[in-house]
Design brief:
With 316 residues, this protein is an alpha/beta fold. It has 2 domains: 2-78 and 287-312, no CATH class; 84-280, von Willebrand factor, type A domain (Rossmann fold, 3-Layer(aba) Sandwich), CATH 3.40.50.410. It has 10 helices and 11 strands. It has helices at residues 14-36, 42-45, 52-72, 107-121, 147-155, 165-180, 202-211, 246-256, 266-279, 290-312, and strands at residues 2-3, 75-82, 87-93, 127-133, 137-144, 186-192, 216-221, 227-231, 237-241, 260-263, 282-288. A 6-stranded mixed sheet has the order 5-4-3-6-7-10, sandwiched between helices. Strand 4 and strand 5 form a beta hairpin. Helix 3 (52-72) packs antiparallel against helix 10 and helix 4 runs antiparallel to helix 5. The chain is elongated. The two termini are 34 Å apart.
């Protein structure tokens, strides 16, 4: 929580000063009472005293001044709200290594499941697009609010070819800019399982995304033991390792202002995408709490006044 006009909080120093003044006043009053009659006969010559009730109403008034002063300082808190201008582009690696089965049933199928989890969590007002890439890049769906179209495009992805991560970032960024203009609002969620082998340098594209204020959230999918069987000209296949490249993906996220995740199985991948769906496409907004503080102060003041009227038939 923060305050829009914190200078008013200095008035809180008056509260302990007022309490000290009240205590000093009570001591003087009691001294005057003692001078009026001897302590042994004091009760017989004075009316019934209110005791603690006298202090209760004053205490409520004193406590009420704290939220009242805080209200003058205009308290506020920062909350994450859906950014209706934002567009999110999911960039999915569809290179041949996505056929690896170290993530059951396969890396690509695990990615499909994760995207469905993402779409179920992302706010409905946020538009989502889909880019698929191997050694080339294809925009399967420009940002749209129609989740069914995104899911239909997702179902068409098949693993093949190499990996052009930098090109995928460039196309994803262009898709966001085409929708939002020169001041793009949005984010890119990049899922890849291997080293970039074609096209532009992905770190340079991450820097450009950062300059435009578009964070890239990266997910490294797969395990170090992942392999695929690659056909060879002489017939048959050869087994090749296809480990993920978390270091490059971490660098992309860091340079762009996003976050990076690693997923070695379908369950953790879906968990990552659910988390992203709840956070990506949101912006921080300050909400003022002045009314709540003022309302609390009013309740305390009214309570003190009602008690005083009930006990003493007057306000303090």
């Amino acid at each position: 929580m923060s305050f829009a006009q914190p200078a008013y909080l200095l008035a809180l120093l008056l509260v302990p000063a007022a309490v000290a003044a009240y205590v000093a006043f009570e001591r003087r009053r009691r001294a005057a009472e003692s001078a009026f009659a001897a302590p042994a006969v004091f009760d017989s010559v004075t009316a019934a005293r209110p005791g603690w009730r006298r202090h209760m109403t004053i205490a409520l008034y004193a406590v009420a001044t704290v939220p009242l002063i805080a209200a003058l300082a205009r308290p506020e808190r920062t909350v994450a709200v859906p950014d209706e201008r934002a567009a999110i582009v999911l960039a999915i690696d569809r290179s041949g290594s996505m056929a690896a089965t170290d993530v059951a049933p396969s890396r690509l199928e695990a990615a499909r499941i994760a995207v469905r989890a993402f779409l179920a969590k992302v706010p409905e007002r946020i538009e989502v697009g889909l880019v698929a890439y191997d050694h080339t890049v294809q925009t399967l769906q420009s940002p749209t609010g129609d989740r069914a179209r995104v899911l239909e495009a997702l179902a068409s992805i098949r693993p093949r070819g190499g990996t052009a991560t930098g090109e995928a970032l460039a196309v994803s960024l262009a898709s966001i800019r085409a929708r939002s203009g020169e001041d793009p609002a949005g984010a890119i969620v990049l899922l890849s399982d291997g080293v970039s082998t074609h096209g532009r340098e992905p770190i340079a594209e991450a820097r450009e995304a950062s300059e435009l204020g578009v964070p890239v959230y990266t997910v490294a999918l797969g395990t170090a033991s992942g392999t695929i069987d690659v056909p060879i000209r002489s017939g048959g296949t050869v087994t090749r390792p296809v480990p993920p490249d978390p270091a490059t993906l971490e660098a992309i996220a860091e340079r762009s202002g996003g976050l990076t995740f690693a997923a070695a199985d379908a369950r953790s991948l879906s968990a990552v995408y659910e988390r992203l769906g709840s956070s990506v496409g949101r912006r921080e907004e300050k909400r003022e709490l002045t009314a709540g503080f003022a309302g609390g102060a009013l309740v305390l003041l009214v309570a003190g006044g009602l008690l005083s009227l009930h006990w003493f038939r007057r306000l303090p």
